Predict the structure.
Amino acid sequence: MVLSRDEIREALNQWNHAWDKHDLNGVMELFDDEVLFENWTGGKVKGKESLRQAWAPWFENHGGFRFTEEETFIDEAEQKALFRWQLQWPSFEKGYEGRPERRRGVDVLHFRDGKIIQKLTYSKTALEIDGKRVQLCAELP
């Protein structure tokens, strides 16, 4: 199944609505059973059920996280989308735990047969906490 540009846009609109409601089941509906997810730390999860298990605690204790769409590019021929977002949530950063954070990033989404088969997430290395710019530092071994 190949999705039209409008079908990809509508699927992403419904998906974003599920994120807004903190509805894990609704979010998971758009994923292929064999999805590969990679987050901004380089952590990877393979498979829809493994991803559901990995995300369940986050959704249960979501702290009111909110993704705001900044821009979306859709490549109908390649069945890919680039979703640029801003995340607002209680920070997990050391020394800032629980304080309001704004983080910006992108998701690179690959579709197969009408479902997301790959979700690659990238984030800026600077974020905003309590209205101040905070530079993330890599932890070296």
Observations:
- The longest helix spans residues 5-20.
